[in-house]
Amino acid sequence: MPESTTEFLERVHRQEYAKLIATLIGWLGDFELAEEALQDAFVSAMEHWEQNRAPRKPDAWLTTTARRKAIDRLRRSKPQIVDPEQLEDLPPKELAVTEDFGEVGEIPDERLKLIFTCCHPALPLEQQIALTLHTVGGLTTTEIAAAFLVTVPTMGQRLVRAKRKIKNAGIPYYVPPAHLLA
Asked: What is the pLDDT of residue 62?
């Protein structure tokens, strides 16, 4: 039996979410905006792919759509975190979702940067783990709350606080140099 659009989209979400969210956070520098834009892109995909066939490269389609959704959100908001015009002018090579390795040891997407940001020592350990499970692992707030044996609203607040701290403290979105890894 052929896979339904919903099943296909769920599979894409499980397999590609971490890479997509990491890419968007890298462009935008804002966890919440990236998550909202990606969520909007998945909703658009559900609507669009129901009527038309799913694209050959669903991750590229979702990345492009999420980028456009983020630009739309930035234009509608009063305080501008990132200039939407700058996002439109990104070179095509930076917008492509690829599995090619450019240099030896280079990670082909932004997930490693995302892991280092989520696990920054300025965040309490519980927030580091919860944020990593949520953004990189794709677990829901409910699943993480169950693992921590706390209520869903409590875990939701921890995640919000962690994202806010990253933004307000200016925690960098990068892989630290080797001498800082110890």
From this structure: 92
